[in-house]
């Protein structure tokens, strides 16, 4: 999908407004008119940049995921042991939950809309591929550096680590109190460390 020019200030304003509206109200309860009003632009100008609400959702989730992808790459690059990597993954997920709950809401909205929208489904498919690839590359480099020694294939491990974080995200949305359970975070860290294996 072709995104609007990232240097265009109006496009950024509209995306930020869409992120706020879609994250707070949900896809089905948000109208294009509401997003335009939040952005302080006309519907016509909004449609100059984005053809539909589906495209807005896809681009909002794409933009919101860019920083998370960078976080994954940094986490692998900075980790010196399996313990470091397990702690880094746990802390990264926790930071997202604590500082950006809207990101979780947008992810669920995207999953739901993707069932009816080929456009959103393609964007979500691309994002999942990019996240799995980022995990796989990070795991490969960690193995090469002797940081980890997993006993299972790296492609499967990358998908499994992503599934663990996504699965917990879904639980947090239904049971927010779970995010305050320290034993759960410790269990996640221990499980990830066991899967990674100690390369030292």
CATH topology name: Tetracycline Repressor, domain 2
Nearest-integer average pLDDT: 91
Q: Can you count the beta strands?
A: 0
CATH architecture: Orthogonal Bundle
Task: Assign a percent range to the helix content.
Answer: over 70%
How many angstroms separate the termini?
Answer: 43 Å
CATH class: Mainly Alpha
So, the CATH homologous superfamily?
Tetracycline Repressor, domain 2
Q: Structural class given helices, strands, pairing?
A: mainly alpha
Could you spell the SSE succession in H and E letters?
HHHHHHHHH
Unreliable residue runs: none
Overall geometry? elongated
Structure description:
The chain has one domain: Orthogonal Bundle (Tetracycline Repressor, domain 2), CATH 1.10.357. It is built from nine helices and no strands. It has 200 residues and is mainly alpha-helical. It is elongated. The model has no long low-confidence stretch (mean pLDDT 91). 76% of the residues lie in helices and 0% in strands.
């Amino acid at each position: 999908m072709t995104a609007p020019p990232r240097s265009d200030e109006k496009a950024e304003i509209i995306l930020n407004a869409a992120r706020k509206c879609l994250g707070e109200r949900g896809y089905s309860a948000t109208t294009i008119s509401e997003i335009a009003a939040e952005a302080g632009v006309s519907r016509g100008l909004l449609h100059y940049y984005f053809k539909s609400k589906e495209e807005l959702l896809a681009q909002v989730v794409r933009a919101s995921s860019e920083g998370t992808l960078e976080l994954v790459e940094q986490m692998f690059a900075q980790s010196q042991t399996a313990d470091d990597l397990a702690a880094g993954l746990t802390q990264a997920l926790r930071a997202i939950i604590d500082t950006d709950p809207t990101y979780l809401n947008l992810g669920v909205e995207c999953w739901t809309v993707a069932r009816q929208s080929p456009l959103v489904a393609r964007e979500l498919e691309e994002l999942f591929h990019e996240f799995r690839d980022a995990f796989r590359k990070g795991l490969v480099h960690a193995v090469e550096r002797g940081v980890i020694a997993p006993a299972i294939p790296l492609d499967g491990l990358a998908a499994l680590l992503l599934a663990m974080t996504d699965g917990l995200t879904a639980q947090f949305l239904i049971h927010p109190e779970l995010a305050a359970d320290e034993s759960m975070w410790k269990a996640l860290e221990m499980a990830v460390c066991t899967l990674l294996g100690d390369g030292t």
